[in-house]
Design brief:
66% of the residues lie in helices and 0% in strands. The protein has 8 helices and no strands. By secondary structure, the chain is an all-alpha fold.
Length: 134
């Protein structure tokens, strides 16, 4: 959770930019599973494309959460193409999902594959293309 001290402004900026997981890593803090959704929910198209490309260089990054998020970034961009905009996918699916994961009682051991599957399911269950008239 957020620390309410002198670091609150940079922490909140990271949360709103979609870089909260990286912020926590730089602080040497544990990154909870919900924080890996943050880039998907708030990141720009460029940031999601970079995350999607970065997963192709797996041997350079041993963080399985980052690799799972990279895969999901590509899936989110595909959903955004179908829906017409990334912001629509973020507002309809990813921000509510981020909040749901934030307030939920943490699972004893959430694995990146389970986490990724839950996000893919949420994207698929929300018929974005029908709602946007595509």
């Amino acid at each position: 959770m957020l620390d309410w001290d002198e670091n609150i402004v940079p922490e909140l900026e990271a949360l709103l930019r979609g870089t909260y997981a990286e912020y926590l890593e730089r602080q040497g803090r544990d990154v909870p599973p919900w924080a890996w959704i943050n880039l998907l929910a708030h990141g720009s198209e460029d940031a999601l494309r970079r995350a999607g490309r970065a997963r192709r260089w797996r041997f350079l990054d041993v963080n399985v959460w980052r690799r799972a998020r990279g895969y999901l970034a590509g899936e989110v961009m595909h959903a955004a193409q179908r829906a017409g905009s990334l912001r629509e996918v973020q507002a309809m699916v990813l921000i509510p999902l981020e909040l749901e994961h934030l307030v939920a009682r943490p699972a004893r051991r959430t694995r990146p594959g389970q986490w990724a599957a839950s996000i893919l399911t949420a994207i698929e269950r929300t018929d974005i293309t029908r709602r946007s008239g595509i």
